[in-house]
C-alpha cells in the first residue's frame, strides 16, 4: 500500500457535533503497529474537554430532541446510522487495520459487520419493548416504565475498537441517552468516525461525543464526573476496579464493567471430533493476535489424548504466522503497540523460566519492517501455579494443561480470578451439562468455542466484570426503572 491510498485521518475530538482540538492544544501521535508510521496527531483530551463533552451531552439530553423522540423515529435514525457504518466498511476496516494491527479481512468481515449489525439490532429492538402494569388493586394503576439514565460515559479498550464501542453506544443511544465515549489511546480513529456517521444519520449534535486521550487524563474525569449518570467500561480488571471506585466516590453513577479473562477450554477424550476441537483451540487463541478478552488461553486436554491433540495442533501453527495486516490473505496481524509486544514477550520469558515447555513460537516476527509482530506460541506442561496459567497475557500464547477427570478439571478451571468464558468438548451429554453448570463463567460453549450472536448476553462472573453487554439485557444498563402510581 502506498501512502496515497491511505484514508486521511482526523484525530480531533468530536464534541457537540463538531471536530475540535483539545482545549490545551495538546496532541499525541497515533502510531500504526503495522510499520511504525505516524497516522495522525490525536487530540489529547483532558478534564476541560471532558467537561465540555459532558455539558454538550447533558444539554442534548435535556432538550429532548433525541431522548424524547418516539422510539419508532429513533429506530429509523439508528438503522440509517448502521447503514452508513456498513457503507463506510472499506474505509473503517483499513483504518482499524492500520490503527490496531488486525488483519484487514477480519476488520471488515468481523469488526465492521458486527458493529453495524449491533447498531441496527438495537435500533430495530427499541420500538418493540413494552412497559408493564403491576397487578395492584382496582383503585390504582402502577405503571412500570423504563427511562434513559441520562448521560452515559463509555470507556473502551483497543482490541475491538468499533465492536466494543458499538456494544455500548448502540443500546445506550437507542434507549434515548446521550453518550460521551473515550476510546483507547492506542486505537482512537474509528470511534471518531462513528460519531461523524451518527451525526450524518440524524442523531442530533451533542448526543454522541468522543474525547480521545489517555486513561488517567480523559477516562478518569469521565468516571468521576458529577453529571455523568452511568459509566460503561470495557478494559482490564485493575482499571475496572478503579472505575467502580470512581463511580462510588463521585455521584454513585451506575458502573458497568466488562473486564479481563483467562478462559478455560476443556477437551475430554470423548470429544465428538478431535480435528474440530484442535482447529477451534488453535484458531480461537490466535484470532485477533490473541488480543481477545475471551480468548481460550488455558487449554485443558485430557491426558490420554494430549499427545495426539498437540501433534495436530502443531501442524496448524504455520498457518498463523503473522503477515502484513493490509494484505487480504493475512490471518494474524500486528500486536497493538510496542508496550503490548514487550508485555507478551515478558510472559513468554516467564513461561520458559518457570519451566513450561515451549512447543511453538516464542520469538518476534517481522513480516513488515518497523511493526510489532510475534510468532504464534504454544506452551505445554503448564502447571496451574505458573504465571502463564494465571495471568491474562493478551497475546497469541496458548498454555496447555492436562487433567484426569471432570471433577479435577472443573476445580482447575475455576481456580482463576476471572470467569468470562469457557468451553467443554465431550460427546457425553450428562458430562457436558454437569461441567457447563459447574464452570463459573458468563458464557460456556459445548463442542464449540466461538458461537456468537448479538441476541445473547455477554459478560463475566467474578473479576471479569459486572453486567452484560449485547442482547436485550444490555438495556438494563442504560435505563432506569420508574414506578408511577395512578389513583383511579
Ligand atoms: P485498559 O484497562 O488498560 O484500558 C481500557 C480503557 O480504559 C482505555 O480506554 C484506557 O485509556 C482507559 N483507562 C486506563 N486507565 C484509566 C483510568 N485510570 N481511568 C479511566 N480510564 C482508564 O485495557 P486495555 O489494555 O485497553 O484492554 C485490554 C483489556 O480489556 C484486557 O484485560 C481485556 O480482557 C479487556 N477486555 C474485556 C472485554 C470484555 O468484554 N470483557 C472485551 C475486550 C477487552
From TrEMBL:
Which protein, by its recorded name, is this? Aldehyde dehydrogenase PuuC
Q: Name one Pfam family in it.
A: Aldedh
Q: Keyword ATP-binding, does the record have it?
A: no
List, alphabetically, the PANTHER family matched.
ALDEHYDE DEHYDROGENASE-RELATED
Which family does the UniProt entry place this protein in? Belongs to the aldehyde dehydrogenase family.
| Keyword field | Oxidoreductase
The record's listing under SUPFAM superfamilies reads: ALDH-like (SSF53720)
The protein's GO terms of the molecular function aspect are: aldehyde dehydrogenase [NAD(P)+] activity
Q: Which organism is it from?
A: Hydrogenophaga crassostreae
The Aldehyde dehydrogenase domain sits at 26-483
From what superkingdom does this record's organism come? Bacteria
Amino acid at each position: 500500500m502506498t501512502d496515497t491510498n491511505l484514508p486521511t485521518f482526523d484525530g480531533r475530538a468530536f464534541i457537540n457535533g463538531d471536530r475540535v482540538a483539545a482545549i490545551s492544544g495538546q496532541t499525541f501521535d497515533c502510531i500504526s503497529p503495522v510499520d511504525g508510521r505516524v497516522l495522525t496527531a490525536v487530540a489529547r483530551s483532558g478534564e476541560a474537554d471532558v467537561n465540555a463533552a459532558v455539558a454538550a451531552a447533558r444539554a442534548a439530553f435535556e432538550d429532548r430532541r433525541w431522548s424524547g423522540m418516539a422510539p419508532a423515529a429513533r429506530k429509523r435514525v439508528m438503522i440509517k446510522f448502521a447503514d452508513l457504518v456498513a457503507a463506510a466498511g472499506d474505509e473503517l476496516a483499513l483504518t482499524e487495520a492500520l490503527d490496531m494491527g488486525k488483519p484487514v479481512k477480519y476488520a471488515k468481515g468481523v469488526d465492521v459487520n458486527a458493529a453495524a449489525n449491533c447498531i441496527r439490532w438495537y435500533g430495530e429492538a427499541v420500538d418493540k419493548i413494552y412497559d408493564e402494569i403491576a397487578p395492584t388493586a382496582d383503585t390504582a394503576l402502577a405503571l412500570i416504565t423504563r427511562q434513559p439514565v441520562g448521560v452515559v460515559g463509555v470507556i473502551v479498550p483497543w482490541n475491538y475498537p468499533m465492536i466494543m464501542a458499538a456494544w455500548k453506544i448502540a443500546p445506550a443511544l437507542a434507549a434515548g441517552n446521550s453518550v460521551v465515549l473515550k476510546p483507547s489511546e492506542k486505537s482512537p480513529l474509528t470511534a471518531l468516525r462513528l460519531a461523524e456517521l451518527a451525526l450524518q444519520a440524524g442523531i442530533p449534535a451533542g448526543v454522541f461525543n468522543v474525547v480521545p486521550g489517555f486513561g488517567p487524563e480523559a477516562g478518569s474525569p469521565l468516571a468521576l464526573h458529577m453529571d455523568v449518570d452511568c459509566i460503561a467500561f470495557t478494559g482490564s480488571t485493575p482499571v475496572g476496579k478503579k472505575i467502580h471506585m470512581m463511580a462510588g466516590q463521585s455521584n454513585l453513577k451506575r458502573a458497568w464493567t466488562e473486564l479481563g479473562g483467562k478462559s478455560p477450554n476443556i477437551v475430554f477424550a470423548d470429544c465428538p471430533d478431535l480435528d474440530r476441537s484442535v482447529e477451534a483451540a488453535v484458531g480461537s487463541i490466535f484470532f485477533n493476535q490473541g488480543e481477545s478478552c475471551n480468548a481460550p488461553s488455558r487449554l485443558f486436554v485430557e491426558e490420554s489424548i494430549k499427545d495426539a491433540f498437540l501433534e495436530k495442533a502443531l501442524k496448524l501453527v504455520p498457518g498463523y504466522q503473522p503477515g502484513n495486516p493490509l494484505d487480504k490473505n493475512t490471518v494474524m496481524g500486528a500486536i497493538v503497540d510496542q508496550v503490548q509486544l514487550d508485555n507478551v514477550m515478558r510472559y513468554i520469558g516467564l513461561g520458559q523460566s518457570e519451566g513450561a515447555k515451549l512447543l511453538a513460537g516464542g520469538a518476534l516476527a517481522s513480516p513488515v519492517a518497523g511493526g510489532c509482530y510475534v510468532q504464534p506460541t504454544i506452551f505445554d506442561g503448564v502447571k496451574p501455579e505458573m504465571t502463564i496459567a494465571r495471568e491474562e497475557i493478551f497475546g497469541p500464547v496458548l498454555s496447555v494443561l492436562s487433567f484426569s477427570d471432570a471433577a479435577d478439571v472443573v476445580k482447575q478451571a475455576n481456580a482463576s480470578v476471572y470467569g468470562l468464558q469457557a468451553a467443554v468438548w465431550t460427546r457425553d451429554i450428562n458430562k457436558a451439562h454437569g461441567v457447563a453448570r459447574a464452570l463459573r463463567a458468563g458464557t460456556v460453549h459445548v463442542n464449540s468455542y466461538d458461537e456468537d450472536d448479538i441476541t445473547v448476553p455477554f459478560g463475566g462472573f467474578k473479576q471479569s466484570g459486572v453486567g452484560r453487554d449485547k442482547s436485550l439485557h444490555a438495556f438494563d444498563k442504560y435505563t432506569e426503572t420508574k414506578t408511577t402510581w395512578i389513583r383511579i
